[in-house]
Design goal:
The chain is of the alpha/beta class. It is 41% helix and 18% strand. The strands form three sheets. It has a five-stranded mixed β-sheet, sandwiched between helices. It starts with 22 loop residues before the first helix and ends in a 7-residue tail after the last helix.
């Protein structure tokens, strides 16, 4: 299907349209893995072990290539991968690369027709990988697919999204979130779309995100100006802007233990999250929008610092208040200036 061919009445071969035919289908002589899985790991050895074990159970249904990029873990993760999973390609870094850069290292080293970005704190259930790959094979207009993510107790984890507006960014994941108009966050979290139904969405969270190789070749790799957070939002935005669909596919299911790497560095998590948000808005909504948001965020952290300081002065759990004051002060001192802007 999609190959150039000649008929008795044709004098010229049929022209192949690159916008509707996958390059790897045009060249069936090139044998590649069906799927390259990229896992960026930082100090979550046991979770990574569970993740790789779950992947191993999918090897009989599709051709897999698994690449673990380890960002200078100190918990023995690299040794565990080498001893227990010799079929995994391990790339060791002597520094914490950050999530986008680490994934880019893995993508460049991969060869699969599709690329799966997978968090190490996930467990792939049943034939989820085969379901995702088969979906992409049957839908050449789709540029990215995310499965249904589940919490430890089996409940559905929110993972499908619409692109954020400025009003969304001012409320979402801040202390003002409880004051947001109901429709703002309902729209952003796509709560009108059933969790158990396949749907086109604007983006899906990056704990498990599969993208065809030819789409990556077209839109490029992750933006390494992000260190962690919002990189998948930016990537899906570029994929969507290039004309491909983004799909939430609940038939594939993956358990996600949220934030097990980032919770090891709470202050840095605050800074990275807000800087990433500001980078996205500066990049896709302009300098004025990003400036407004930065001013609101800094004012928000200043208010929280003052509030925690006052509670500490009156003797309310002083150790906790001291830790929070120090963390918020570091955030304010950072200025929340996104890299490159």
């Amino acid at each position: 299907m999609g190959m150039e061919h000649m008929t008795e009445n044709d004098s010229q071969p049929e022209t192949i349209r690159p916008d509707i035919v996958r390059p790897d289908i045009v060249r069936p002589d090139i044998v590649r893995p069906d799927l390259s899985i990229i896992i960026v790991n930082w100090n979550v050895k046991e979770l990574l072990r569970d993740c790789l074990t779950s992947i191993q159970q999918n090897q009989e249904t599709i051709r897999l290539e698994v690449i673990v990029v380890d960002s200078a873990s100190r918990d023995g993760s690299p040794d565990m991968v080498e001893s227990d999973f010799p079929w995994v390609k391990l790339i060791k870094s002597n520094q914490n690369l950050g999530y986008p850069r680490g994934n880019n290292v893995g993508i460049k080293a991969s060869s699969g027709r599709n690329v799966l970005i997978l968090n190490p704190d996930t467990v792939v259930l049943d034939d989820a990988l085969g379901i995702l790959v088969n979906y992409l094979e049957l839908h050449i207009d789709v540029g990215a697919v995310g499965p249904q993510l589940l919490n430890n107790d089996g409940s559905v984890q929110s993972s499908k999204r619409r692109f954020p507006s400025l009003i969304t960014g001012l409320f979402e994941s801040t202390w003002l979130e409880s004051l947001a108009p109901k429709y703002v966050l309902e729209k952003y979290y796509a709560q009108d779309l059933p969790d158990d139904q396949e749907n086109d969405v604007d983006w899906v969270t990056g704990a498990c995100l599969i993208v065809p190789r030819h789409v990556i070749d077209h839109v490029g790799l992750f933006d390494e100006g992000y260190f962690m957070y919002s990189e998948e939002l930016d990537w899906c935005r570029r994929i969507n802007d290039a004309g491909w669909r983004i799909v939430y596919l609940p038939q594939a299911k993956v358990v996600h233990h949220v934030g097990k790497s980032s919770e090891q560095a709470v202050t840095e998590r605050h800074i990275n999250f807000q800087q990433a948000k500001l980078r996205y808005f500066r990049k896709h909504h302009g300098r004025i929008s990003a400036g407004i948001m930065r001013a609101v965020l800094l004012a928000n952290y200043s208010w929280q610092l003052a509030l925690e300081g006052a509670k500490g002065l009156v003797g309310h759990n002083r150790n906790l208040r001291r830790q929070r004051v120090q963390a918020y002060w570091q955030v304010i001192r950072s200025g929340l200036r996104p890299a490159g802007y």
